[in-house]
Write a structure and sequence with these properties.
This protein is an alpha+beta fold and 528 residues long. The chain has nine helices and 13 strands.
Amino acid sequence: MTSARLAGAPGTDHPSGRASGRSPRIRPFRSWTLRSRVVLVVVAMLAVLGAVIGTVSVFALQNYLMQRLDGQLTSALARGQHAADRIYGDQPTGPDVIGIVQTPGQQTGTFGVIRSGDMLLYPVILSDRPQNASGDQPVAPQRVPIATTALVTLPADGHPRTIDLGASLGSYRVAAVPLTNGDSVIIGLPLSDVNATVARLALVIGLVTLAGLVFAFLLANVVVRLAMRPLERVASTAEQVSLLPLDRGDVALSVRVPEGDTDPHTEVGKVGSALNRMLGHVASALTARQASEQKVRQFVADASHELRTPLASIRGYAELTRRAPHELPPDVTRSLGRIESEATRMTSLVEDLLLLARLDEGRELDRDPVDVTHLLVDALSDAHAAGPDHEWTLDLPEEPVEVIGDAPRLHQVLVNLLANARVHTPEGTKVTAGLRADAETGRAVITVADDGPGIPEDLRSTLFERFARGDTSRNRATGSTGLGLAIVHAVVVAHGGEVTVASEPGRTVFTVTLPLVPADLPSVASIP
C-alpha cells in the first residue's frame, strides 16, 4: 500500500446567480401575486371609469356653455345690427361705432367692429374698467388693436365661430351680419369665462379622481388581503405537507386545512375541502404503505435470522465432508467447494439484509467518539490486500479526525465504498481515500475517488437503492449483491450524515459527511 498525502484538486469558482451591474427587471404580469393583480385591475378599471366620466362631463359642460354663449352672441349680434342700422342707415360708416357695443343689453367684454370691404373700422370692446376716476360710469367702451385677419374673411351669415383676437384679447366667439349701407357688423363675446369654467371642472375632476384612486387602492388592498387570508391558510397547509418526509418512515399526516376554510359555498372553501379529502386519502395510502413495508421488514428480519443457522450448518457440513480422512472424487470435491462458497455468499447477503432491516426499524447505534483516520487506514489496508492489482493511496490530515458514531458500522461504510471501487473498476485503477475536517460546518468529509470508467448516468439516481446493480461493463466476475451502497446510505443517514456521488468518465467520487465530535466531549485519545 502506498501511503501519501495528495494535494487537493483546485476548486472551481462558480459565479453567483446575480450578475453585478444589472438593473432589476420588472416581473411579467402573469408572475405577480393574485392579490397584486386583483388590486391593479380594480384600480385600473376605476381609473378608466374616472377618465371616461371626467371626459364626458367636461365635454358636456363645454358644449352646454358654448350653446349658451352662442345664444347670448346671437342676441348681442341682433342688438348690434339694430344699433348700427339706426345710427348709419344708408350713410357711410362713421367713427361712432361705440354705440354698437354700448347699446342697452350688451354685456361686459362685448367686442364690436364694422367691416367695410377689406378694412376693419373702429374696433371697440365694452370694458369693465371705470370711465373716470370717480367711478360714476363703471362700464365704458375702449378702442383695441386687432392682431388677426380672420375677421376680414368672416362670412356675414350670423353663424358663431371661434377666432383668436390676439394675446391681449384671447379667443372670442364671433358672428357677422350685413348692414343696410352694405358694410358688415361683427360682434363677439369672450370665451375666457367658458374656458376658465371648463378648466376648473377638469382640475376638480382630476384631483377627485386621483384622490379616489388612492383611496380605492388602499381600500382594495385591505379588502383583497382580508379575502385572500383563507387562501393563504390553505397554501400554508399545502406547504407544511410538502415539507414532511413522506417518502419513508411512519408518516403521521395530521395537517389539515382549518374547518372555517372548508365552506363548500365559497371558492376557497371548495379548494380547502378538496385538499382535506386528498390529504385523508394520502394519509390512508401512507399508513397502508407503512404497514406493508413493516411486514416486509419483519419478514426479511425473521427470514434472515432464521437462515443464519441453516447456512452455518451447510457451510460446516460442506467443510467437514471436504476435510474427511477418506479421499473424495474430484467432482465431489469441486461441488463441495462450490456449496461452501455459495453458502458463504448467501451468509453475507443474509447479514446485509438483517442489518438493513434493523436500521429500518430505527434501532439505536452506538454514539461514541470514533477515530475515522484509524478506520480509514485499516479499511484501505484490507482493500489493498483484496485488490493488489489496483493502486491505493491515502490523503489524510496531520491531526486525527473524530466523529460520533458506531465504529463497526462506520468501518463497514468505508469497506463497502472501497470494495465498490475495487469490484467495479478495471485493474490498474487508482483509488484515493481522503479525509478532512470542515470546521465551518462541523463535519468530517470522507472521499473515495477513482479514475475508472465512471457510473452510467441512468444508474446514478438509483445508486443507493437496494439491489441496484450496474451494467455488465461494471460487473466483475465476482458479482455483487447490490446491497453495499444501500448499507452505506442507511448507516450514514442513521449517523446524521450524508452520502453523495459525482461521476464522469475518468473520475468518480463518493463523498460522506459525518458530524464531528463536539468540543465538550472527550476524544478517543483521552479515553483511558
